[in-house]
Amino acid sequence: MTHSALCRLAATVAGTGCALLLACTAQPPAATVPTTLNKFTQDATLRQIATAQDERNTAALLPFLEGPDATYRREAAMALASVQSKTATPALLARLQDAEASVRQAAAYALGQTADSTAEAGLHSYILKETNPTVRRYELEALGRCTSRSGLGALVRLPAALASDTAALSGQAWGLYRAGLRGLTSEAAVGRLVQLLGSSNPYGARLAAANALARTRGLNLLPFAAAISAAAQQDPRYEVRSAAAAALGKAAQAPTVPGLLASLARRDPDYRVRVSALRAMNAAMYTPVKEAAWAALTDANAQVALSAAEYFLAYATNEPGTLFLEKADKLTQWRVRSTLLAAALKQETTGREAIRSAVQARYAAATSPYEKGYLLKALSEDPAAFEFVRQATFAPNQSVVIGTYGMEALVAMRHQANFPASQHAEFALTLRQGVLSQDVARMGIAAEAIRDPKLDLRRLLPNPDFLVQARDRLVLPRDLEAWQSLQQTIDYLQKRPATPVPVATAATHPINWTLVGELPAAQRAVVHTEKGDITLRLLVEEAPGSVANFVELTRQGFYNGRNFHRVVPNFVAQGGCPRGDGWGSSDYNIRSELGDRRYGEGAVGLASAGKDTESCQWFITHAPTPHLDGRYTIFAQVVNGMDVVSRLEIGDRIDKVELIR
């Protein structure tokens, strides 16, 4: 999940059925950390299974899946969850009859990861036969990942015998969530999710239902505004209140919703709920929520203040730009201030020239490349600033961060409805300059803009030769994301099918088993930042290759002095990029290890540009972000310092990462 890949994404337990969620929430550090060696140290067979997973060798894993040892059957099933080969579906379905519940659970998880529609009938049949509540929950969630539209009804209507089974209710809710992410929903499914959001249901069911209502596209939740409002105000868990608040954006026409969102933005004790409330506000409710948004600009939590500024940037109308300029000048948080300056420039006003001059003056005075980048981003709201932004983007001997933000600002500026037609050709030449700049970020961003059909640049840049020239200078796998963007644009201009992405094989960077053998099962790492320390528990037994890679880079001092280059409110803080802008990588890739973990609060995942393209960048989640589950490796968990994570901002420095026992 590199800078651009993650952007596209975003664009987040009590009872028997919720143990998985409990396993992923932040826990206080133990008084003493055990130094027991990890499971791979003494067991060559486990290393063999993990190596076959790393090599994506389904044929080597299947014999273990059917062998006499239940431990190895379970490990093989979990390995196949990362391989995701549909050729393993029949064997995994057979394991749903395994005598060991842990094997059945792993097989159900792997089937969900494979998302093979041919598993639908088998999963449905075994759900009715399963005696273990936890396994049944896994099977129901897997069914949501595999179900067809015609089979959705079976997931909506649980058998009467399961009506009071808390594990089954959680599994049903997660199954409906997974189906919703795939665009599969119905009126009956929405109605059932609203029921599952009720306070009498287990936490896992409420969390899944709230997220399903928030993230499933195209829902009209107006008929359910009262029930969702009750959850947003009254649920004891911030995670449920936050997702329910987000869902209220789909019930905006209800008369009570704007006032409720304004109240949540002002008063909810958890900053993540306040962020969700601000994000759920839209243009239609501008007048009743405006005062709450103004107040949120000075919220003690920077993520809330930024969300308020983003609300004004997106929806403010008929406001004098000078009003935003005046408010911006009183703010101390540079990202909030820069976003409000963008809102000032966006307003149609006679004072725009003075506002533009003020932004340019701040740019000249700023010392942080990240603040400079955000000020260029603000200037993208004003096409009259094109030449200023272009010169800043290509200025010699500057931070690559500024060039990246500048290129993004130029593209955003071209999307403005009032961008002059007389400058279309000049803009096309600027993109060509970006492609030929030999800077991977400017190359990738410019290439993406060239293939944007809304910009109609094929007529101005019909010959892809300069793109081919730039692509051939890149080094794989280090420059994979820029390579992808350039190749996609070449294919677009030549009107041919997409070229497959050249993903590196395991042989280019195998798991370092010698290093893995040195690590205790409870290995810790401390990320020392300028805001405070964050302690991680490394999950070596679940993601040995990813942990080994992180440990190796840590021992080299690779992360020392890096920055958190991306912070998205109520989502993630991301760092570890050698360039500092999200476009950097190491000279190798490692493979995804998609184990049985959820992205709860404080999960630490590896960024990628697609499956099996992980490298050096990692991110920490602020709150549950279940749409990332099973798609990005979780290799660590925050066990202390979530208060620090909540205060991280773009540009904050990683002083040092240190391994501790």
TrEMBL record:
Transmembrane annotation, as ranges: none
Keyword Isomerase: yes
CDD domains for the chain: cyclophilin
Stretches assigned to the PPIase cyclophilin-type domain: 528-649
InterPro entries named in the record: ARM-like (IPR011989), ARM-type_fold (IPR016024), Cyclophilin-like_dom_sf (IPR029000), Cyclophilin-type_PPIase_dom (IPR002130), Cyclophilin_A-like (IPR044666), HEAT_type_2 (IPR021133), PBS_lyase_HEAT (IPR004155)
Pfam families given in the database record: HEAT_2 (PF13646), Pro_isomerase (PF00160)
This protein's record includes keyword Manganese: no
Matches recorded under Gene3D superfamilies: Cyclophilin-like, Leucine-rich Repeat Variant
SMART domains from the UniProt entry: EZ_HEAT
Signal peptide boundaries: 1-30
The organism's place on the tree of life at top rank: Bacteria
EC number(s) per entry: 5.2.1.8
Keyword tags: Isomerase, Rotamase, Signal
GO terms, molecular function: peptidyl-prolyl cis-trans isomerase activity
Name this polypeptide is given: peptidylprolyl isomerase
Organism: Hymenobacter taeanensis
Source lineage: Bacteria, Pseudomonadati, Bacteroidota, Cytophagia, Cytophagales
